[in-house]
Amino acid sequence: MGWFWADTAPAAGVAPHPMPRGSAEPPPSCPMHRKAPAPPSRLPESASTPQGACPYVPPDTPSPASSTAPPPPKQGLLSRLNPLNNMPFDLSNKRADNQTQHLPLSREASTIPKGDGSLWEYPSPQQMYNAMLRKGYTDTPADAVESMVGVHNFLNEGAWAEIMGWERRFSRGVVEGYKICARGEENANQAIGIEDPFDTTTWNEKNIPPPKLLRFTGRPTEPTPKSQMLQWLGWAWPAKYESAPPFDRHDWFVQRCDEQGCQEVRYVIDYYEGDPEPTGEPVFFLDVRPAIDGPRSAAERAVRWGTDVWWRASGGVVREVRKAEQARKKREEEAAANGRHYN
């Protein structure tokens, strides 16, 4: 769900929150099911500060340029797209001609930093509605757009919280990440000093800057290998693995820094929808992990998954309880010995 925009925003936070079911569920006509074009290699020198756009609603492909004359400046497809999210710079925030219901024009700041240190912003309901109409999604009810924006923002904040969890573990390398993960997922947040796993703003590394989201792209028509394998397992063992395929897929490109410098890490996100709560609230599952673009990302995934499986399979909790009980008895015996007096 990547309707990020590229405007500079004031520092503000948005915590993940449950959304009412209602019309918040992405409708079949939601343009997130459409593939976005590939981003250009760089921003044109003459372009101004990006105004941002949704990656799911790319502009129509223009007719081929004339072979005898170059196109006018800033009239081609790439010159109209923001390379950070593959969307036009100038999507309108004006009321649509046939719109019968007022939609808010204000935009909400995320907690996700961009490469320049400012925060990514989410679209206003009016901007999202205009973008959908522009691509022909005229059957989208206007009264559902605000809920759609709320669900979209909620999922993006959750995705960033998951990425922050990976970065807190492995920003200093695989070895340090192993030390954090060695006692399983249930103890990892305690090891890194984080109480709330959905905290998207706390960063305890004093000598390393926090991660930043450089750019992203939606790839809903390109399933990840992991999601495909899960579907195959569901076909073979439906009682254990059967589940609906992800309704969306994103690639997020994150800047990770350490003492040696900064590098770009690609994260893959699969979006799943679960059964709703008894109260009607929707349930979503995000599978967020570093893409296996090299040995380090493969090692990070193996360490985090393997240590948690080993901790639970080998009775790590039981060992911890036994150690605590032994320590308690030892303290009691020492206190009793020190308290004895002989006549």
TrEMBL record:
It is an enzyme of class 4 (lyase). It is found in: Mitochondrion inner membrane. Its EC number is 4.4.1.17. It catalyses: holo-[cytochrome c] = apo-[cytochrome c] + heme b. InterPro entries: Holocyt_c/c1_synthase. Keywords: Heme, Iron, Lyase, Membrane, Metal-binding, Mitochondrion, Mitochondrion inner membrane. Residues 1-118 are annotated as: Disordered. GO terms for molecular function: holocytochrome-c synthase activity; metal ion binding. Pfam families: Cyto_heme_lyase. PROSITE patterns: CYTO_HEME_LYASE_2. GO terms for cellular component: mitochondrial inner membrane. Coiled coil: none annotated. Lyase that catalyzes the covalent linking of the heme group to the cytochrome C apoprotein to produce the mature functional cytochrome. PANTHER family: CYTOCHROME C1 HEME LYASE (PTHR12743), HOLOCYTOCHROME-C SYNTHASE (PTHR12743:SF3). Belongs to the cytochrome c-type heme lyase family. This is Holocytochrome c-type synthase. It comes from Massariosphaeria phaeospora.
